[in-house]
Design goal:
The complex is a heterodimer of chains A (780) and B (163). Chain A has 780 residues and is α+β, with helices and mostly antiparallel strands. Chain A is 28% helix and 23% strand. Chain A contains 20 helices and 28 strands. Chain A is globular and about 85 Å long. The longest helix of chain B is centred in the C-terminal third of the chain and has 15 residues. In chain B, helix 2 crosses helix 5 and helix 3 packs across helix 5. Chain B has 163 residues and is α+β, with helices and mostly antiparallel strands. The C terminus of chain B is likely disordered. Classes of the chains: A alpha+beta (780), B alpha+beta (163). At the A-B interface, helix 1 and helix 18 of A face helix 2, helix 3, helix 4 and helix 5 of B.
Chain lengths: 780, 163
């Protein structure tokens, strides 16, 4: 692998700027003449807008303009869309309600944007926003999905009767029913998957600049996918044609899904820049982020799992109601359907599966993909159900899983997915060994002497990454293809630039992607630069989410490297008077195999550009591009084991051990992969123990709108993690990699809750398992 | 308006600021020291930690005027002469950062922590001391490891305790 190549634990190239305070985030951008924006937001969860008076605000000090939705509409700026069409089981299309970037007639959640104020300073803009008078007629609000479906619930969008967005199903309902009626045992579980706020540490921000002379817009934004932002803002929101709109996502301080979407603020700031003639910057404060960033999860589910007399799974029936909030965010429709129900076979052979999903509007922030996106919800219900079944059947949770593991690949599940490779027993065994599973009873007894309740819980997850084969997702309703692009530019001195459509906002692409080049051409890592995040530099890309940058983004780079290598070998063969098939590239040398005839890599590059002596008909230059469209999803899987001690007096849970054994296929940089797992587990523990988003059910006010109220995991809430890997290479992509970005958040919540319920001897516990809830579960 | 002056990263600076201007905004907007970040509005996240007269302070909890006359060090001032501070180097070596947004505050808090404990730190103490700094990327594992490694190096211990 070499010291900097594939598999090497290389420290990150990008770190220096971050550890010295030289990162460049959107809020750090300053352009000449730049002014500041504040948004006027609805204080009500549901209200009709009877009028907006901006006169007083417009006269406030420093105010340049106060602009409303009527003016935005008059300029032809379109409504926000959901980009994935889901049809209900009766064949009708989903009921997508109108989402104006600035509300004109109605507001539907606390934080809904109504107007923008542009002023000389941020404080002046905020002061003036307070002075905008909006005449609201309050309407009854509903915040919970189950309540929103009830007769008489407040109607949120006219075109979604009963607040139902779609009523969708997958699998064979009759077969699942038959399995349940014929079962020797049926385990029934009700599952709540708590609503989470993603909370990237960098709040969302945008800077819009309109250049009148060129009739051109530039948008700096906190985005995971600047090209998708440009495409959507151009094609659907009519902000500007693509050639007149440059989107730059510079350093971005975490995303976790919340920065995939194009929000009203980018659109409005670009438009306001043209309207006012000045560049307009907006930066969310943390409460605005809580109110308006797309949230995650929020499912209510019933599960029935059928077993035969030999404890083999025979059927699974799942019924879910998913809260999508006040509007359909960009990929919101796909999350509780194709990213969720298609994973319900888990790691198990289950002959019959059926899942029904109803998605619902409520007067809450839009809900969309958050780290894992559908797969944590599927994993949580499955792994809670399997653990519950083991307790009901009186068998070991590990053995029940082992008995039902899928063992032959490829494996076609009853819910679309075709698993290509895996070894679930290997990860289970690895995790049990690391956790000293056999030694648990002794540890439990020892804890008992100290007055602590000790419990152990496991979770065997599977997920789908490498999103996604374009034709397949197109047939399922996706509005875009989900390939990735790359361009490899070898300079005349042999240094290399890689342009990628993936976007790095913490994942370390500048290092990992460069390792591919170092590995291939033997050039030092320092000679390789990764260029991303700017639509003027990189032609097109689909961005970073769904753990796709490795499996899809790097595969595109590999394809481009293949082409560069081929051309470099042709040039070298010509210069060395050898056959092209005899040329090898090793340690920065382009050689004739088995001889001492060789050229330096830089000499081949230089010859490509001097073009004095190239093979007949060959174009000068050494630069190749590629698009990679995956042929299948990838299927990372693994086993997580959590061990807890609960204080029976306080109900407080301490995680005393957390073990992860993941199969991500081949690994480019183990240090970075481990870091991804650590972070995912941290967020999963947050979901399991700490994080609960709470709306007042009457008023629709967000009660957890700051770090004073929403419990983020802190360093003393989590343990050090024991992370290891097993490897079955992914057969569908050239590097054999599966993706590692979300696994930690997917696999960990059920392991934690399984451990706590084991400790306290009561299976009835919902997330977040706060001390109060745990204490009540223990003491009734 | 308030007239203020202070020493920031060894340089004398002054400015006229609105009375309500926070130290973090003075650093970022008047001095263009954008390494100090704002991650919340409630002094919870710690992305804005700087040193004021040698002590770690959340620069969003202090008015710029309150810091007048003080000596302030930000993340930009930590690596004297282009040499990484041991805490900076440890964060890189141990992959103690991902998106980098919380990192300046983490490093400034960690430096202060190590100074206060004279390098005598264990994992539980580091975790407790980090209560005022939130990271969403790393799950804290490698941050804790990096701080213990830096503490060991700064106090002259031969070997890092944490794994």
């Amino acid at each position: 692998m070499g010291i900097e190549g594939i598999g090497a634990r290389v420290a990150r190239k990008e770190d220096k700027r971050f550890i010295t305070g030289k990162g460049r985030y959107t809020d750090d951008m300053v352009v000449a003449g730049m002014k500041h924006a504040a948004f006027v937001r609805s204080p009500h969860a549901h209200a009709a807008i009877k009028g907006i008076n901006t006169d007083a605000a417009a006269k406030m000090p420093g105010v340049i303009a106060v602009l409303t939705g009527d003016e935005l509409a008059a300029d032809g700026i379109g409504s926000l869309i959901c980009g994935w069409m889901i049809h209900s089981k009766d064949g009708s299309p989903m009921n997508m309600g109108d989402w104006r970037p600035l509300a004109q007639t109605k507001v539907r959640y606390v934080g809904d944007a109504v107007a923008i104020v542009v002023a000389e300073t941020k404080n002046q803009a905020r002061d003036a926003a307070e002075a905008v008078e909006v005449d609201y007629e309050q309407l009854p609000a509903v915040t919970e999905a189950v309540a929103a479906l009830k007769d008489g619930a407040p109607q949120i969008h006219d075109n979604a009767p009963g607040n139902l967005i779609y009523d969708w199903e997958i699998g064979d309902g009759a077969a699942a029913d038959e399995a349940i009626s014929n079962a020797a045992h049926v385990t029934r579980v009700e599952i709540l998957n708590n609503r989470l706020v993603p909370n990237a540490m960098e709040p969302r921000a945008t800077l819009g600049q309109y250049d009148e002379a060129e009739d051109h817009y530039t948008c700096w934004t906190t985005s995971q996918n600047p090209h998708v932002a440009r495409l959507v803002m151009s094609a659907f929101y009519s902000v500007a044609p693509e050639n007149k709109l440059r989107v730059i996502a510079p350093d971005v301080g975490g995303g976790f899904g919340s920065k995939i979407y194009i929000y009203p603020e980018e659109i409005v700031c670009l438009w306001a820049s043209k309207k006012t003639g000045v560049p307009v910057k907006w930066v969310a404060d943390r409460t605005e982020s809580f109110l308006t960033d797309a949230h995650g999860r929020d499912h209510v589910t019933t599960v029935e799992m059928a077993f035969d007399a030999d404890n083999r799974m025979t059927g699974l029936k799942v019924d879910t109601i998913a809260n999508l909030g006040a509007y359909m965010s960009l990929f919101s429709s796909a999350v509780p359907t194709y990213l969720y129900a298609t994973l319900l076979s888990g790691q198990y052979t289950i002959p019959a599966i059926h899942c029904n999903v109803r998605t619902v509007y409520t007067n809450t922030a839009p809900v969309d993909a958050y780290r894992g996106a559908g797969r944590p919800e599927a994993t949580y219900l499955l792994e809670r159900t399997v653990e519950t079944a083991a307790r009901e059947l009186g068998v070991s949770p590990a053995e029940l899983r082992r008995k039902n593991f899928i063992r032959e690949f490829p494996y076609q599940t009853p819910v679309i997915m075709n698993y290509d490779a895996g070894d679930y027993e290997a990860s289970l065994n690895a995790a049990m060994k690391t956790a000293d599973y056999a030694g648990f009873p002794a540890r439990k007894a020892e804890a008992e002497k100290r007055g602590k309740k000790r419990g152990i819980g496991m979770s065997c997850y599977i997920e789908a990454c490498g999103i996604a084969p374009s034709q397949a997702v197109g047939s399922l309703g996706a509005g875009v293809g989900l390939w990735e692009s790359a361009e490899v530019r070898v300079n005349a001195v042999g240094t290399v630039e890689v342009l990628t459509g993936s976007h790095s906002h913490g994942q370390g692409h500048e290092t990992t992607f460069a390792q591919l080049v170092a590995d291939r051409f033997g050039v030092p890592l320092d000679s390789v630069s990764i260029v991303h995040g700017d639509t003027d530099k990189v032609q097109m890309g689909m961005g970073t989410y769904g753990s796709r940058s490795g499996a899809v983004g790097m595969s595109a780079i590999v394809k481009a490297l293949d082409k560069v290598e081929k051309k470099a070998k042709m040039i070298a063969a010509h210069l060395l008077e050898a056959d092209e098939t005899d040329i090898v590239i090793e340690n920065g040398q382009v050689k004739v195999a088995g001889t001492d005839k060789a050229l330096g890599w830089h000499e081949v590059a230089l010859n490509a550009y001097t073009a004095h002596n190239l093979p007949a008909g060959m174009e000068p230059g050494l630069k190749e591009g590629a698009f990679y469209d995956p042929s299948n999803f990838t299927f990372p899987a693994g086993c997580y084991i959590c061990e807890v001690e609960v204080d029976p007096d306080t109900g407080k849970t301490e995680i005393v051990q957390f073990v992860a054994a993941d199969d991500f296929g081949n690994i480019i940089n183990p240090m970075i992969v481990e870091g991804q797992v650590h972070g995912g587990i941290g967020q999963g523990i947050g979901q399991a123990l700490l994080e609960g988003t709470s709306y007042d059910p009457e008023t629709g006010q967000l009660l957890t709108a700051s770090y004073m109220d929403y419990t983020m995991p802190r360093a003393d809430d989590v343990p050090s993690y024991k992370v290891s890997h097993t490897v079955t290479p992914c057969p569908s992509n050239p590097l054999g990699i599966k993706g590692c970005g979300e696994a930690g958040a997917i696999g960990s919540p059920p392991a934690v809750i399984n451990a706590i319920t084991d400790a306290i001897g009561n299976n009835n516990l919902t997330m977040p398992a706060t001390p109060q809830k745990v204490w009540k579960a223990m003491h009734g | 308006m308030a007239k203020i002056e202070m020493t920031v990263n060894g340089r004398s600076v002054s400015g006229d600021v609105e009375d309500r201007t926070l130290l973090v905004h003075f650093l970022r907007e008047n001095l263009n020291l954008t390494g100090t970040h704002v991650g919340c509005d409630t002094s919870q996240c710690g992305a804005c930690v700087v040193h004021v007269d040698g002590k770690a302070v959340k620069s969003c909890t202090m008015l710029a005027a309150q810091a007048s006359g003080s000596t302030v060090m930000t993340i930009e001032g930590l690596s004297a002469g282009g040499e990484l501070h041991p805490v900076q180097a440890a964060f890189k070596e141990h992959h103690g950062l991902q998106c980098g947004f919380c990192t300046p505050g983490m490093i400034m808090a960690a430096t202060d922590m190590i100074n206060r404990y004279g390098g005598k730190l264990d994992e539980a103490t580091v975790r407790a001391e980090l209560d005022g700094n939130i990271c969403r990327c790393t799950g804290y594992h490698n941050i804790v490891k990096a701080i213990l490694a830096a503490a060991a190096e700064m106090s002259g211990s031969a070997k890092v305790a944490a794994e």
